[in-house]
Amino acid sequence: MNNKKIKSTNNFDEASIIQGFDIELSEKNAQRIDRLVDDFEKSILNRVDEEYSVNTTFSERVADRIAKFGGSWTFIGYFGAVLLAWTVWNMLPFIKPYHFDEPPFILLNLCLSFLAAFQAPIIMMSQNRQNARDKHESVIDFAINYKAEQEIDDIQKHLHRIEENSLHNQEQFNNELMQIKQLLASIESKLEHKKLDE
């Protein structure tokens, strides 16, 4: 009995408890479960990426790349450098014959308007596609969570059934033990009566 207690405390130190079930789970098994879940999530994401690459047209992929570049610090850096070079080139007095857009920079304003007019819908197209993809992923996440919840409910029901069976078996064992004690008591009383008769 003491050995069992020592073993269980040692296991308890090395193990974690699954919430709600009082089931000991060793670190090795916990790592294995984490690895399986990670592999499952990667396979789902790979499947979503495959669907994305199969179902997208060339123009949609170009829109995604433009939106990705247009929303980066690299674009801001390049664009800032172009604007600075444009304004400095057109303001230096010693190269006045080479100026192509004198202040107030009407051509620059026109270029910026064109850029904004084309870039905004491209970015919105990419965001709409990303929203659709996020929605698809959230549906998959919901399905996984729902399935996991059903499996947890099944496990809980099974554990409750096992607990009820063990309680029922314990009651039967206690009843049988009581009957055996009663039989032993009656046998002892009969033996005592026999001794007294002799």
Automatic annotation (TrEMBL):
The chain crosses the membrane at residues 75-92, 104-125. Residues 145-190 form a coiled coil. It holds the Pfam family DUF1003. Keywords: Coiled coil, Membrane, Transmembrane, Transmembrane helix. The lineage of its organism: Bacteria, Bacillati, Bacillota, Bacilli, Bacillales. This is DUF1003 domain-containing protein. It comes from Paenibacillus marchantiophytorum. It comes from the Bacteria. InterPro entries: DUF1003.
